[in-house]
Specification:
There is one protein chain. Helix content is 50%, strand content 15%. The protein is α/β, with parallel strands linked by helices and 260 residues long. The protein is elongated and about 70 Å long.
Length: 260
Amino acid sequence: MKKIGFIGMGNMAGAIACGIEKSGFLKAGDMIAFDIMDGQLDKVKELGFSIADSEEDVVQQSEMVFIGVKPQVVEKVLQPLKDLLKEKAIISIVLGYDYAKYNEILDASTRHIFVMPNTPALVLKGMSLLEETHSLTKEEFAFTLDMFASIGEVEIVPSHLMGVAGTVSGCGPAFIYMVIEALADGAVKEGMPRSMAYKLAAQTVLGSGAMQLETNIHPGILKDNVCSPGGSTIRGVEALEKGNIRATFISAISAALHYK
């Protein structure tokens, strides 16, 4: 019996699976995976994961089942598994399928929790949101909490905030990659080699985030501390404000959250 079985091995599920193995929380041999696209399994095959023949095979061989398929196929995938999932526990990262939604489609004996992770889990710097309302046992919840803590930070979030919280941490990496790319482009424009520009920009973002988390100082104060009177940084801040950077990021969160 495997500790975790993965149904669906897309980018997010793959980042989690590889991160869990990298962190040492579970060995590759403790996990089994299945995806209808064989190519999606290459990354975990190389690590030594067991590969299942079907979704049914995953459920039968796993203590807990991880659901990482696309939202539009969740019910199609789970319906044939409904009986097999009785008395089992599932962890789902499928957007839109929270505690209430799973109660509608699963047998009452199936325990479940909705988690919203992000792709930096691959490098053990993830931000995972665990829905506060769930039906896991105390031991299963503790295991789930420890597993996601092994690949980054964890926050337990009330159900009504999962949408906006997931937008910040789930969509946010794409927005920050654009910031890294743009900062690097500015440096390249001024003559810096691109590889150096990416390193400087990425490390600056990483260090700035770590400093805010560790000091808990308001980001506006941290910004002010870098801006000398009449200096270069405040002139750069002015250029960003002229480009409506704050309003644009706020709009990005709202646009992503309310997408239908």
